[in-house]
Amino acid sequence: MIKVLFVCLGNICRSPTAHAVFETLVGRAGLQQQIQVDSAGTGDWHVGHAPDTRASAAAAERGFDMRALRARQFRAADFGEFDYILVMDENNLADIQALAPASHRATVKLFLDYARHFSEREVPDPYYGAEPGFERVLDMIEDASQALLCSLRETLEREAAE
Ligand code: 4NP
User: Is-contact 93 87, C-beta < 8 A?
Assistant: First the structure.
C-alpha cells in the first residue's frame, strides 16, 4: 500500500481537488487497493468544511466528485503515516517542514514537480481569484496526477517483481 497526502493552505480548494482527481485516476486504473489518498491543510480555518463550491463545480464539470471530502488540518503525525506528502506551493512546504520530526519516511515534494506540461513549480491559490483560476488549477492537477500515477505504478510493479 502506497499512501499519498496532498497538502495546501485551507484544504478546501487545491488539495481536495488533487485528492478527488488523483483518487479518481487511481480508481480507473483499478489500483484503489494499492494506493490510498488523503488531503489536508496547513491552516485550521476550514476544518470540517466541505470544499469551496467553485472548486467542486469546476471539478464536477470534468467528472470529479468532491462532495464527500471534508477539510482537516495537517499534523506532524502525517509524516509517519504517508509515503508521499505533495504540497501545492512553497509556503505549504515551509509550513510542514517546520513540523517535521528529525527523521521520517515520507517523500515530501511540490506536486508540480510531477507535471509534464507546466513549468511552474506552484499551484496558484485560487481562493481570492476568479473562475479561470480554478480551471487552471484543474489543468495543472490533472497533468501532475497522471504523471504521479505513472510513477507510482512503476514503483508498485518494481515492488511486485522483487
Ligand atoms: P486552498 O485555498 O489552500 O487551495 O484550500 C485557500 C482556502 C482558504 C484560504 C486560503 C486559501 N483562507 O485563507 O481561508
Answer: yes
Ligand 1 atom at minimal distance to the Cα of residue 11: 5
| pLDDT of res. 58 | 96
Taking the C-alpha atoms of residue 13 and residue 159, their distance in angstroms, rounded to an integer, is: 33
Indicate the pTM of the whole model.
0.97
116 pLDDT more than 80: yes
Which residue among 12, 54, 72 has the greatest number of ligand 1 atoms within 8 angstroms of its CB, and so is best to mutate? Answer: 12
Q: What angle do CA 140, 145, 151 make, to 5 degrees?
A: 130
Q: HSE of 17 in the Cβ direction (CA atoms, 13 Å)?
A: 37
Q: Using CA atoms, how far apart are residues 29 and 111, in angstroms rounded to an integer?
A: 20
State how far the Cα of 37 lies from the Cα of 26, in Å rounded to an integer.
Answer: 9
Whole-number average pLDDT of the chain: 96
Gyration radius of the chain over CA positions: 15
Residue 120: count other Cβ atoms within 10 Å of its Cβ: 12
Beta strands in 49-149 (DSSP E): 84-87, 107-110
14 is catalytic: yes
The grid coordinates listed for 41 are 491543510
Query: Catalytic residue among 14, 52, 54, 78, which?
Result: 14
Query: In this structure, which amino acid lies at residue 10?
Result: G
